[in-house]
């Protein structure tokens, strides 16, 4: 009986062992599942962090691109601005140089004109006064010519001789004073008639002279430096009548 009892209990041991083994496997599976869950959670965190980092990197990349674009644009603007500023500076220098050159030319021209005006004033400033004084010289010449030729050196009329000599000396001193100031008398007797310096008062035939020649000087002319102050009043030989 005892042997049969032990024989009946032996088949139950493998069941318990199998149960224990199954429980162990279940526990192991549970642990594995927990580990997998933890790993999955960790993977999810890592993925989320990676995604967040990628998103951050993307934003930083976009910001970097924007910064680069802005920087390049700024550099471009600065470069263009620098070029424009340089161009404006060069243009300003050229304009200033041209303005200075024009001002220098104007100043030189003004100085030249001023010098000409001063020289003209020095030369011809006495022109009006000298022209008025010419009447005095004309009257002195007429007074001297009124004295007869034979009486000019005659001792019979010493007073008339002295008067004549005084008039001639006064006329000579006056002419020297004129010449000192550039005023020169013209007596173009025998010269070719020149309308720039001669005033034809009459024409007359003269077989001994060429036509157009000054045959008589009624009033002498005067030159003030290179300018004709008064034309000489002259008589001119007329053209011969070929008819």
UniProtKB/TrEMBL annotation:
Entry GO CC: PAM complex, Tim23 associated import motor
MF-aspect GO terms: adenyl-nucleotide exchange factor activity; protein homodimerization activity; protein-folding chaperone binding; unfolded protein binding
Compositionally biased tracts (Polar residues): 1-11
GO biological process, one term: protein folding
A matching Pfam family: GrpE
SUPFAM superfamilies, per database record: Coiled-coil domain of nucleotide exchange factor GrpE, Head domain of nucleotide exchange factor GrpE
CDD domains in UniProt: GrpE
Tree of life domain: Eukaryota
Signal peptide boundaries: none
Coiled coil: 26-53
TM spans (from-to): 70-91
UniProt cross-references to PANTHER family, sorted A to Z: GRPE PROTEIN, GRPE PROTEIN HOMOLOG, MITOCHONDRIAL
Functional summary from the UniProt entry: Essential component of the PAM complex, a complex required for the translocation of transit peptide-containing proteins from the inner membrane into the mitochondrial matrix in an ATP-dependent manner.
Name this protein carries in UniProt: GrpE protein homolog
Protein source organism: Phaeocystis antarctica
């Amino acid at each position: 009986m005892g042997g049969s009892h032990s024989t009946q209990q032996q088949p139950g041991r493998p069941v318990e062992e199998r149960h224990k083994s199954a429980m162990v496997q279940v526990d192991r599976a549970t642990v594995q599942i927990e580990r997998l869950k933890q790993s999955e959670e960790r993977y999810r965190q890592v993925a989320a962090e990676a995604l967040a980092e990628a998103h951050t990197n993307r934003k930083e990349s976009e910001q970097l691109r924007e910064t680069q674009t802005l920087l390049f644009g700024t550099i471009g603007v600065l470069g263009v601005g620098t070029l424009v500023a340089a161009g404006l500076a060069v243009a300003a220098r050229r304009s200033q140089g041209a303005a200075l050159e024009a001002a220098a030319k104007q100043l030189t021209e003004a100085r030249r004109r001023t010098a000409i005006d001063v020289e003209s004033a020095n030369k011809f400033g006495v022109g009006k006064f000298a022209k008025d004084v010419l009447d005095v010289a004309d009257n002195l010449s007429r007074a001297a010519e009124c004295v007869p030729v034979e009486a000019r050196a005659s001792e019979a009329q010493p007073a008339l001789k002295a008067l004549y000599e005084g008039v001639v000396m006064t006329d000579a001193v006056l002419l020297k004073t004129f010449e000192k100031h550039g005023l020169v008398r013209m007596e173009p007797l025998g010269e070719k008639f020149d309308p720039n310096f001669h005033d034809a008062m009459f024409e007359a035939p003269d077989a001994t002279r060429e036509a157009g020649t000054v045959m008589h000087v009624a009033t002498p002319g005067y030159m003030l430096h290179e300018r004709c102050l008064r034309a000489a009043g002259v008589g001119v030989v007329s053209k011969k009548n070929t008819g």
